[in-house]
Amino acid sequence: MNVSPSIISSKLEFLHDQISRSVRAGACSFHLDIMDGNFVPNLTMGPDFISAVRRSTDLELDAHMMIVNPEKYWKVFSKSGCDLFYFHYETPFNFKKVREEITDENKKIGIVINPDTPPERITDLLPEIHKVLVMSVYPGFSGQKFIPKSLEKIRFLRKYIDDNRLSCKIEVDGGIDDITGAEVKKSGADIIVSASYIYGGVIEERIEKLRNL
Fold first, then answer.
1. Strand blocks (E) in the chain
2. d(CA 76, CA 27)
3. Annotated catalytic residue: which of 33, 62, 177, 190?
4. Residues 120, 152: Cα–Cα separation, whole Å
5. Core-most of 32, 104, 107, 125, by most CB within 10 Å?
6. Catalytic residue status for 33
7. Mean pLDDT confidence for 55-67
8. Can you give the residue range of the structural domain that contains 103?
9. Least confident window among 31-40, 104-113, 170-179
């Protein structure tokens, strides 16, 4: 299983060390939760923090843009080192324009759907994106309980992507541990995001357990 640790739950005073340990344990990328306190009720990392993460690893950095007007700010985070940008379906933005701009910058684009958003609404976008991120909790805070109905969405997306021979990957974020991760994998996900489970224990042991699901 591909594992993308979410830095939001790392111990920031040991950021470089925890990133290095995650890389050695086999992380495929890092998930960066960017929140503005408006789109979601929390405020997190900015461009300077992203730059610090970038200096600590060469792995792909995926920016989860939980902000209002993401098309206005993604370039700032691109300059800080992000490689892929997740835009929420629930946030109004010009998909065609943003996709063209991101592609011109040799970056990647993904779409996120919240727990209440049916996956059918984004099928027309799947051929145009690199990843689809299924939120299995309501975005805003780490440590929430996994929402079981998310498995239905994963199964739907897996079938649609396979039936249409698309290259888009399915990533799942929220309440992921070794138990829910196994269910997510069984449902067809390609990548799992985990925050408090990984950084709340021995990093190497937790990532290895997730990778071996």
1. 2-5, 29-35, 60-66, 84-88, 108-113, 131-135, 169-173, 191-194
2. 25
3. 33
4. 12
5. 32
6. yes
7. 95
8. 2-211
9. 31-40
Domain count within the chain: 1
166 vs 179: CA distance, rounded Å: 28
How does pLDDT run across 125-148, given as a tens digit for each residue?
999 999 999 999 998 766 789 999
Question: Which CATH number fits the domain that encloses residue 86?
Answer: 3.20.20.70
Partners of 194 in the β-ladder: 5
Map residue 168 onto helix, strand or coil.
coil
Residue 17 is a catalytic residue: no
Catalytic residue among 116, 124, 173, 178: 173
Using CA atoms in the order 17, 23, 27, 30, what is the torsion angle rounded to 10 degrees? 60
Beta strands in 67-197, from DSSP E residues, in sequence order = 84-88, 108-113, 131-135, 169-173, 191-194
